[in-house]
Amino acid sequence: MQAPTTVLITGASGGIGAALARNYAEPGRILILHGRDLTRLTAVATDCKAQGARVLTLTFDVRDADATIEQLRSVSQREVIDLAIVNAGVTQAIGSGEVFESFATTREVLAVNLEGALATIAGVLPEMVRRGNGQIALVSSLAAYVGLPRTPAYCASKAALKTYGESLRLRLARRGVAVNVVLPGFVRTAMTDRVKGSKPAIIPPERAALLIRRGLERNRPRIAFPRRLAWGLRLLSVLPASIAERILAGIGFGK
After folding, report:
1. pTM > 0.90: yes or no
2. CATH number attached to the domain at 6-250
3. Which one of the listed residues 24, 145, 154, 164 is annotated catalytic?
4. Peptide bond before 226: cis, by omega within 30 degrees of 0?
């Protein structure tokens, strides 16, 4: 893929999003950075400006689908967004002593991770299709392959996003718009720190950003990492459920 001039990153105030912003920041590049925490977002924007990028910041709440679509369509008409990285997300884990997630928790996770992601796509896609050029990266998770018992709503949201992205890629391939699904494993972020339990092969966000950028430059349909964990979970997804459950329990994901 040709190097993008203008990159939109949602959820850019921390974690993978902030690492991606700093990775892409360089002279001649325009970064459109979104986040709800203005203080943290401003700090990331300041770093990116110091690296030579022109930076615009957005602070809308992706849970408000109408506002998300309206703001991104407006931005898309002013700036030619070459690459949109749909990264904003949250996770919630079932706490100690709890049996299941509350409906409020489930709704919150789905509102951000799925509805917010789809609204983001709806905001930037029309202009890309009109131009016949663009790239959209959907940040899903390796949790899309196998349901993990501590984070059911998170797994469900990421599985839906993975499937949606793969469908969209096939649909838009002949219209000049590339769609890529990003499937990270455990990345050392504040969000990951809140989830207790085993976190095999965890990597820093800077490493995740580098792997994502490389995958996008090669237009890979799925950008899944770390490799061994990705292959392991993909294998679990095709094994008989009874066997997969025993393996998950054996490595600490069974409760």
Report:
1. yes
2. 3.40.50.720
3. 154
4. yes
